[in-house]
Design a protein that fits this description.
heterodimer; A: 166 residues; mainly alpha; elongated; B: 169 residues; 8 helices; 80% helix; 0% strand
Chain lengths: 166, 169
């Protein structure tokens, strides 16, 4: 069932065009790299603020407000371009270990972020302006930073471990 | 064509060194170095974008330009040594792939241009934190700097990815 879904995705007109085209794949890859550098770079700004290592003269609330719209916009582009790259050889990518781990790590990063916004920033007014944030904020920031570094690494490893049919 | 031959010779020599051989044969080194390279690019390009958006007056206008510049300029310059070292390792592993590749030369040119544009924004601020806000003409120049900077950094990234797809001459 899942395999059939992957196969039909891969047989779609757009996936076929990406797979068989001369330069479509590299151009989409360019967009993907640009988008992911902006996702990781912008989220790192917030993570470093939560850790109390950067932007200490600015509150967590201000940092979040100025950075997260950029993160989400870039993430949208990364997801769309990544989806297109995936579709071109869906059956192969889906079975790649590094791809699977990367997707799992993105999900964990999402949970980590949601946990912070839903539960951990309560009563924030008392500490959001302080240079030193509570342990739970530092944990969320540190975990997020590690996750995104790992996501970048696993993403890069996909290109070295994938065996695309020729 | 002497130049080409000597560049060929250099690439062959570099590719035969034991450092290059190690980089080529130990499988995890190249993807690891590329990951470091991409993370450093992430710091540079994100910081440059935030500074450019502030120059354009599109984001972060609740704080002075000088404050944004002070916070983010270090994240544009300090990753550069990391990029140079990781980039040099990638060149050492496969010298001709980049040194004889027109896209690599293009990327280096774009990088120089992007760095120059960043300096053009930064140096006047060093003398006077309010420099870019002092007149309508300066505000317009600041916007021009931002408009030039963003496509240059995007082009650096795109060229970087295309190195892998364009054959060296």
């Amino acid at each position: 069932m899942f395999e059939q879904l992957l196969q039909s995705l891969q047989d779609s007109t757009i996936a076929t065009a990406i797979r068989e085209g001369e330069s479509l794949f590299p151009w989409i890859e360019c967009v993907h790299v640009l988008a992911l550098t902006l996702v990781i770079g912008s989220i790192a700004i917030l993570d470093l603020r939560l850790l109390g290592l950067a932007s200490r003269d600015r509150s967590v609330v201000q940092t979040t407000a100025s950075v997260l719209p950029l993160t989400w916009t870039a993430f949208l582009f990364a997801a769309i371009s990544g989806g297109l790259l995936f579709s071109s050889n869906a059956t192969t990518y889906a079975h790649n270990f590094h791809f699977q781990v990367k997707m799992a790590l993105v999900a964990v990063a999402g949970v980590n972020m949601a946990t912070y916004h839903l539960f951990l920033n309560r009563g924030a007014d008392s500490w959001q302006t302080a240079a030193v944030t509570p342990l739970r904020a530092r944990l969320v920031g540190g975990i997020s930073l590690c996750l995104w570094i790992a996501i970048a690494a696993f993403g890069r490893w996909i290109g070295f471990t994938i065996n695309l049919p020729t | 064509m002497m130049g080409l031959h000597s560049l060929d010779g250099f690439c062959n020599w570099l590719g035969a060194t034991s450092t290059s051989q190690t980089l080529q044969t130990v499988g995890w080194i190249i993807p690891a170095v590329q990951t470091v390279h991409i993370l450093a690019v992430a710091a540079v390009v994100s910081s440059a974008l935030i500074l450019d958006l502030r120059l354009l007056g599109l984001r972060g206008i609740d704080q002075p330009l000088a404050a944004v510049a002070r916070r983010f300029l270090p994240f544009i310059w300090w990753p550069l040594p990391v990029l140079l070292v990781s980039g040099a390792l990638l060149i050492t592993a496969e010298p001709a792939r980049s040194l004889e590749n027109p896209v690599f030369i293009l990327k280096m040119g774009l990088l120089l241009a992007a760095a120059s544009v960043t300096l053009a924004c930064q140096l006047p601020l060093r003398r006077n934190p309010g420099f870019w806000d002092l007149s309508v003409a300066r505000k317009r120049t600041a916007r021009l700097i931002a408009v030039a900077s963003m496509p240059l950094w995007v082009a650096v990234i795109f060229a970087g990815r295309w190195i892998a797809y364009v054959q060296g001459t």
